[in-house]
Structure formats: C-alpha cells, structure tokens
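Practice problem 4.
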C-alpha cells in the first residue's frame, strides 16, 4: 500500500507574511529613533568641532597680528561703483566678515588668495564685495525686475563651499524657500541708526544662490561697540563682545577671561514660527548681538523684536534639539541651553563687563 507524503511548503501563508511584516515594522519603529539620535549626536559633535577649529583659527590669527580679526571690515574710504545699492560713506563697504579673515588658518589658502587683498584693508577704497564685481544683475535681461538688487559679487571666491563653516544638522547650503528670499552678509552698528543687517543679496540664480554659506557668526556682545554719543543704548556699552565693526580685540584686553567670553556661535536665520528668513554667506559673515537672546525663547528684550512670538532673525539659533553650540575665546566649545538664564547669557557674551559668570546657568 502506497504512502502519501505531505508536500513541502514553499511559501508563507498570508497570515504568516503579515505577522512578519508587522514584526519588522515594530523593530524599525523601535530602531529609527535610536538611529536618528545617533546621527544627531554625531552632527552635534561635528558642529562643535567646527566651532573649535574656528576659535583656534582666530587664536592663531591673534597670535600673528596681536589682535583678533575684525567682526566686519567697514572702511570710511570705500566707494561703490553702483552707490544706489549700498550705504553711503563712511559705511559703503567692503563688508568682509571675520570668517573670510580666518581662511588661511582654516586650511583654505586657495580660496583666500582669490580675494583681493584690498578688501581686507581697513582704509580701502574698494566697494562692497557683493555689489562691485560685474556682471551685475541689472544688466542681465534674464533676471526679473523684481529680483534686481544691484548684485555683482566676487566670484569664484564667494561661491566656495567650506565644510567647516557649515553645521551638518542644517542644510544651509541648499536651503530654499527663504521667507524674504535673502542670502545675507553681516551685522554692524551705526550710531543714530542703531543695529543694521547689511550687504544682502537676493536668492537669485547666478547672483547669490550659488554663494558659499555658513552657520557661524562672531559674537559682538550685547550690542557691539556702543558709540559714546548714543545715550539710548548706553546701558549696553559694558557688554561689548570680541567682534564688532572694525574691532581689533586682543587677548589681554579680554578682562573677563577667554574661558568666560563667547567668541563664535550658531545661526540659522529663523523668523516667525521658526521658518527660515535668511541664510548667511561666509564671505560677509560678521557678528551678531546677544541682546535678543536665543531662539526660540523670549529674551528679556522680546519687546524689541516686533514679531510677537518666540522667533526673530536677530536671535542666535540652531537646528540642534534644545541647545545652541558656542565656542569661547580659549577654543573651548559649550552647548548653551535655549532656556539659559538671560543675564548669564549676556555676561558670557561680553568681554569686559566684569560680572561674575556662573557657567552652570547656561545649561548643559
């Protein structure tokens, strides 16, 4: 009598397949947050390393010249070929920021050599680097009239993409959909007109979109260098930082100590409800004040923002969860909580205020 053997099963049943898929989905759901956390930790560490390199580059510059580079070079002799698009003298240019000065100390000599040396001269007659080099957008019929900004920027130098100037947690180099469509330069303080954000170009192909960008700015303290005639902002004078317009801060002049004074920090250009308003070009990346605090938390001066919410483009900001990285003048890097004590934050950004700084109140 013949025996019938049960045939071998060559496939899963539908129920078994669904069970396997469900198990895989659960495992992915459990692993994904851990993977994302590891990636962010690595990005945060890389960002810290960038700031460490920048701070050390500044220290090496100071060792060479006896002072840190200026937060922004603004020559009283600057003259623009198209003056209708820039500030009048003595604030007409060239608007080269601190990160450009540091290029030779960041192993970026090839980029540095592409920048005319006149742009680093504090008495230069050269015009604004973003408005003085043809071709100009107003001569290009392919540029819509609504996008004409007088832009004619320094190519190819300003187009260089420098990895150490970009935080890996933020895709600043490829950011699009800017609220104001602006790639910005740098901040400076002009008596009687207060703080201005200057040297911007629009996010237009061939006239700004290609610029090398950055997530880092020098720290100007409470409100940069306050002019003695500016009674309205005199209260901020004691909290001057290391970097400001035409600054020449030396290590001995930092009476608060290099380990207690913030030199550089992160910036992503957030605005209302966290949308991106600006990105910053490294060529003009100068300095930012500290008085408006850390996004997205209200500062004690939130009334000055005029936005009615927790975000302002004038605030320091980052894409890291809960913290913003800052490097101190001694090269150390510290994550500062977005909920940091406001007064301690201001003290940390000032170089000569003489206040006792409790670093623990900065968080992290």
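Answer key:
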């Amino acid at each position: 009598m013949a025996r019938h053997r049960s045939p071998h099963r060559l496939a899963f049943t539908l129920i078994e397949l669904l069970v396997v898929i469900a198990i895989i989905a659960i495992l992915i759901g459990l692993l994904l947050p851990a993977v994302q956390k590891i990636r962010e930790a690595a990005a945060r560490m890389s960002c810290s390393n960038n700031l460490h390199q920048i701070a050390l580059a500044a220290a090496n510059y100071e060792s060479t010249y006896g002072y840190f580079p200026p937060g922004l070079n603004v020559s009283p002799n600057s003259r623009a070929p198209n003056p209708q698009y820039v500030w009048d003298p003595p604030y007409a240019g060239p608007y080269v920021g601190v990160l450009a000065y540091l290029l030779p100390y960041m192993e970026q000599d090839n980029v540095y050599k592409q920048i005319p040396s006149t742009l680093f001269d504090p008495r230069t007659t050269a015009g604004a680097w973003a408005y003085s080099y043809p071709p100009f957008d107003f001569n290009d019929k392919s540029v819509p009239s609504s996008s004409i900004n007088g832009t004619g920027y320094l190519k190819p130098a300003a187009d260089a993409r420098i990895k150490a100037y970009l935080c890996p947690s933020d895709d600043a180099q490829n950011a699009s959909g800017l609220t104001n469509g602006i790639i910005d330069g740098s901040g400076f303080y002009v008596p009687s007109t207060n703080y201005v954000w200057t040297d911007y170009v629009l996010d237009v192909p061939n006239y700004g979109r290609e610029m090398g960008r950055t997530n880092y700015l020098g720290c100007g303290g409470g409100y940069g260098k306050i002019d003695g005639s500016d009674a309205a902002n005199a209260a901020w004078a004691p909290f001057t930082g290391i970097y400001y317009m035409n600054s020449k801060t030396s290590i001995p002049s930092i009476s608060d100590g290099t380990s207690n004074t913030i030199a550089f920090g992160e910036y992503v250009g957030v605005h209302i409800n966290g949308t991106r308003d600006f990105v910053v070009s490294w060529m003009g990346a100068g300095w930012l004040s500290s008085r408006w605090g850390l996004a997205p938390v209200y500062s004690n001066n939130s009334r000055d923002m005029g936005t009615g919410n927790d975000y302002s483009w004038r605030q320091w900001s980052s894409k890291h969860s809960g913290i913003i990285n800052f490097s101190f003048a001694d090269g150390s890097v510290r994550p500062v909580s977005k909920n940091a004590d406001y007064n301690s934050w201001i003290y940390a950004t000032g170089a000569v205020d003489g206040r006792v700084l409790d670093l623990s109140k900065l968080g992290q």
